[in-house]
Amino acid sequence: MKLLFAVSDRDLLNSYSKLLELDGIDVTRAFDGTQVVMRTAAEKFDIAVISDSLPRVELKELLRLLYDEDIPTIVITEKRVTSDTLCRAELACSYLPLPFLPDELRKAIRLLNDKKQTDNTFTAGDARVDIKQFSMNGIRVTNEEIDILKAVTEELPFSVRHESVYISALNRKLERLHKKARIKYIINKGYRLVCDNG
Amino acid sequence: MDKVRKKIVLYAMTSIFVLLTVLLAVINGVNFTMAADDADIITQVIADRHGAFEGGGTGTGDYKNKTPYHTQTEDIPPKENEAAGSVEPTNKGQAPKGMGPMGPDSPETNKSVRYFTYVFDDKGEATAVTHNITAVDEEEAALWAKSLLNETTGWTRGTYRYRVYNFKDKTYVTVIDQGRELLPSYRILIISVCGELLGLLASFIVLESISKKLARPLEDADRKQRQFISNVEKEFKLPLTVINANTEIIEKESGCTDYTRSINRQVRRMTSLVKDLRALSVINYESDNITEIDFSEIMTAVLDGSRERFEQKNIKLSMDIEENIKVNGDEERVRRVIRELADNSLLFAKTEARFTLTRDSERITLNQYNDTQLSEGTVDQVFDRFITLENADKLDTAGLGLSFVKDTVKSMGGRVTAKVADGVFMLTIAL
Q1: Which of B139, B162, B177 is the last residue of a domain?
Q2: Of B26, B92, B174, B264, which alpha carbon lies 20 to 30 A from A4's?
Q3: B240 touches chain A (CB under 8 A)
Q4: Can you give the CATH number for the domain in which B320 is found?
């Protein structure tokens, strides 16, 4: 797997690049936005991990570039991830707030890579979810949101950290798409995708 | 005016109000008691003389027939006046204690005391003994005196002091007008009330102007604490993430040792603490995501989702949640509040945890109960940052969860309290 790892803090960059290399991943390093642009132009990556505070190029532009290159992206952020963050059209496939453990980064990379390999789509209510493209009726959905949508559609349990943030964001996205389905909690059953009128 | 200043002004004003009210109530109470005592001395003297000062008044004797006034005191032996209405003779011929120049033998007394005395026979027929008052005519005085027959002594019609006493099977009613004597007392009362109001106004003006200065140290301390929490969270998270990675690299390249495992444990613990701090520092900022949320559904979801963890710890979880209770708030924070309550129960409950959510016409109440080893009383300090009360050293908790709960509930305009009674820890959120 070829991975672009871009953070401005040298220690973080070196440590995690090394760690991921020890895991057998081919890591390309970048410490500012310009380098991300250059590396992306020069090479094809499977996944990108970038910080939301990279200097020189705005995050939005970088995410657009990576989206156009069809590279699923994990954003490392110092900020709290809220449903607002997820609803903004920032095109990230996953957010990883600092501080995180190496296993959390590994898991995020693995899940994104798995989704990238699949051609599956599924229907959540009357919305169509494209797993590979991380989209629901053309709207970007994150890795965690896809997992939740799939679980609630198939009535399976799921384990996502801060699931309320993702559920709240998903409900807002469903509303934006004018869909009647909403994710609600049913006692003794868990979260289910139900019609808004019950 | 911000919250701390408001509180300072409110508490100080309440204290000043209570203090002034008590002080002025005592002063005026004593003043009126002394006025009553003075009046009682006069009525006592009149009672000793069976209805009139020596020298007599201007009563008509039989008010119905308008007969000329006559005093009956000459026919009555002074020592025989048995006290049926608490009449006790004073030293005759001397000015009673407290009367000064207004003594009963003073030639001025008869002129200055406005009073009337009526005597009632066993058939209830009234005869005027003395009628030395112009404000009340004799017919009215007789009826008035009759209405007091079953009393002993006291105030009537505001400023009139009366005394009822018996002699030779007859009942005497003496009523004296103390209006003029009470005037200074009323003036003092009015001045006191005005003084208190002016004092409160002046105190408010002074407190309002100095409260900023008074509140500054408290606000500074609070701001510094929040700033510190925010800084710790910001400054620690990056190094911790790097240390996490570096420890793993060392382990992969040189193998695991007790030391690397220890670093891992401690770093994980600190990572968890920093995540808690992040949640707490978020409270500093106004949420821009306030919507109407289904409190009942959120509470049910979070608690039902925690059921497995309760079962693993052999804690019986029960909940009684009224449906469709909606509140305005930040959904993520509210979820976190319920999660913190569940975590709190998981940490401290011995065998049982119970949650209820109810709504009445005025408020929404959430109660969390669990059995506890804590001693009885209020335990509001559990809401302080970094405070844990029970087995704190043995538990992996930073003592920030309930502080988050308090701050969130406060930001929603609610109140949270905690107490221990009969071995049960009870936390109440009122919204």
Answers
A1: B177
A2: B264
A3: yes
A4: 3.30.565.10
